[in-house]
Structure formats: C-alpha cells, structure tokens
Amino acid sequence: MTVNHLTKLSIAIGLSVATTTAMASPQQFMSSRSFAMGGTGIAVAHPAAAGATNPAMLAADNHEWSDDFGLILPSVNARFADEEETVDQIDDIKDNIDRFQELNRSSNPDEARRIAGDIRRQLNDFDRDTVRVDAGLAIAAAIPTEEYSVGFFSTGNLRATVRGELDEQDDAFLQELENADELTLATADLDRDLQSRGSILASAVIEVGVSLARAFELSDGNALQIGFSPKYVQLRTFQYTERVSGFEDDDFDSDEFETTKSGLNFDLGMVYGFGENKEWSAGAVVKNVIPMDLESAASRPELGEEKRKLKLHPMVTASIAHKGDFHVLTAELDLTEKEAFGYEDDTQWLALGAEFDAFRYAQLRAGVRQNLASNDDNDGIEEETQFTAGIGLSPFGARLDIGALFSDAEVGAAIELGAAF
Fold it and tell me: Residue 413 has what pLDDT?
C-alpha cells in the first residue's frame, strides 16, 4: 500500500476524531510506553494513557511529580507486515500485462509466449500472498485528584490487508498461450480474459470519550480504584476487489467500497493495590461493553467478494504488576479472544513488560508477548511471538517516548509527545 494512500486514510481518521464472515476490528490503541512494554498497561498506565487503556488508572497512585496533570499530544504508532511484497507484485504483473498488450504478437510470437509464461509464474507466486498495515493515532489529557479524577481521550485505529488471489482458469489459459500459434496470440486480450485479482480489506475504529475514576481506601489499608469511560465510537469498513490488470490501491476508500456506523459505548476498569507499600497492583478492564457490528459493502460479488462483518465486542484483560521507585514489572492476559480480520491469526495475548527508571529523567523499556490463539492454519500473516523495546525521556515534566516492535512477520514503531507534572 502506498505511503500517500495510507496518509490519506490516516488524515480521514483524524478528522472524523451473499455469505457473512467474521472481520474483527483493529487491535486496541497502545501508548508508546505500552507499545515498548509488550502492549501492557492495564495495571501500570500513566494517567494520560488511562482512557485508552484502563480508566481506573486515572485514580491510581503515581509518582508525586506526575500525579497532577497528564497530556498526550500526540501519540502515533504503526506496524507493517509484508513478507511477500504483495503490492509490488501486483505492479510487476500489471507491467507484464501491458507489455503483452502493446506487443506486436504477429511478428514477435516467441516474445509473446515468454511474457505469457512470466505472467503465469508471477500469478502463481502471487496467490494468497498478503500484506498488512496497522496505524494508530491518539490525543489525551488527564487531571487526577485525591477524590475524583477526570480525563479526555480520542483515538483512531486502522488495519488494512491486501491479498492476492489466483484464478485457476488463468493458469490454464496462460499455459495454453505459452505454446499457442500466432493467431491465438494475436487475438488474446489479457485485460479482458484474466480474472486473478487483488483484494483490500480494511477497518477503522475511531473513539472520543471521557474517563471518570475514583480511589477508595479499604479497611485493610489496601487501595481500590474504579474507572468508567463513556465514549462515542465510529466504525468503518473498506472492501475493494479488482482484477490485477485494473487494480489501483488508491481507489479502495471510495464511497462505493465503504460502510460506516456510529454509536455510544463504554469501558469499565478496576485496579487493586496491595502490599506493605502498595507496591503490588492487580487490574482488569472490560473494553466495549456494548457489542457493535458493521457489515462491509461487498460491491463486487462477480469477483468473488463476500460480505464481511466488523465486530467490536467486549474484550476482557487482566493484569498484575510490581512497582518501585526505579522499576515497573507487569504481566497481562487477554481473557477473551479476538477474531482475525481478513487473513491472519485470531489473537489472545499473554504479555510481559518492564520499565527501568533513571531518576525520573529517562526510562528503558522492554517487553514480549505471545499469541495464545495462533495456529498453523491462519491462511495469511501469522501473529505469534512479538518482542518490543523503547526509551523514554522526561526532563522537567515534558515527555518523549519511543517504542519499537519486531517479530518474524512484522516490524513497528511508536512515538509520543506529552507532559506530566
């Protein structure tokens, strides 16, 4: 997918701040700190990130130099998986189709046969190859207090997948052209006759909400924080399928290929602090308590498009963490499974994260997460084990957080500007 095209859709997200199969939503937004710590944050999120992570963390104990106000402006992350360079393959096939169409095949039959053979091999290599792009954008603010804590957040998440599909009749047709006579070569029209296609499936989730939280001192001296995030949610799907000869990735977000739906939803969270100095925290969050579904357009059934369903259903995650003056260690587990979008694994993450602080001015972070729902029959991009790392700089209340992610199939990066005091 071109950089220009992804940028165009990202701007749209920011401004908007037959058979049915399952199409899950993009992964939940992660702050750059969470990104660098294996996606964790349920029991350790800073106040400004609480709205997108666990609203109860708005009221949790923080360092005295970061418990009055928090700001994220902005946070951006992106992940990219393209082992087979699918879009480049489509461009190469289109170039060969153009060469065949423009060639004087009566006087150059051997060259025409060679190009037909090249296209057949390219289409076979292209079949079932997949590329995926994830992008996220957020702004947030938080005002924690001893009684009630309030926050605001706005997030946008995009997941787009490009897929190659070989039509078996194309393989037989091109094989015949490799040995065809001059008349057959001269009358062949690849723009008309080839049915192999490229498909783009994309979904976007935009959220704008407020977070409210309160802390309670329990009779045993431990602490309990409860949080609630009412929010406005907009869902979008994009489904574009076209024959390889006419495939244009810039066209996939045209109105005829898009569906939208909006509604109100909310998240619930809690954190329980315990230990001699409340150094231990156990947290849980339920995201998207009200189920929301949206069907895709499937405007090209003649090319094999089937309606797909974007599902934003309740997701439950639990976490435990140990915090000290110079370190944070945390573990998280998704208690619910998220269905795959398009052509990849279902996901259910078990994650570990760590942060080491150097006198509040710099932080070193690392994490790892394992997809418990990964399998060998995902029919696309595998999501299994991911490693993360990052740094944070926080001089005089300003913050710069940078994160990186890598796995066998994927690379990613995150950057965030903010303040905390």
Answer: 97
Question: Considering only the top CATH level, what class is 3-420?
Answer: mainly beta
Residue 21 is predicted with a pLDDT of 46
Q: Which helix (H) or strand (E) holds 318?
A: strand 315-323
Distance, first Cα to last Cα, the chain: 40
C-alpha dihedral sign at 338, 340, 346, 349: negative
**Residues shown for the chain:** 421
- Count of CB atoms situated within 10 Å of the CB of 289: 13
Structure tokens, 149: 């804590």
Phi, psi (degrees; rounded to nearest 5) at 152:
-130, 145
Residue type (1 letter), 125: D
**pLDDT at 65 exceeding the cut of 70:** no
Helices (H), 260-396: none
Gap between the Cα atoms of 258 and 137, Å rounded:
21
Q: Which is higher by pLDDT, 107 or 251?
A: 107
pLDDT of residue 130: 85
Q: Is the Cα dihedral 43, 45, 47, 50 positive or negative?
A: negative
Q: pTM for the whole thing?
A: 0.86
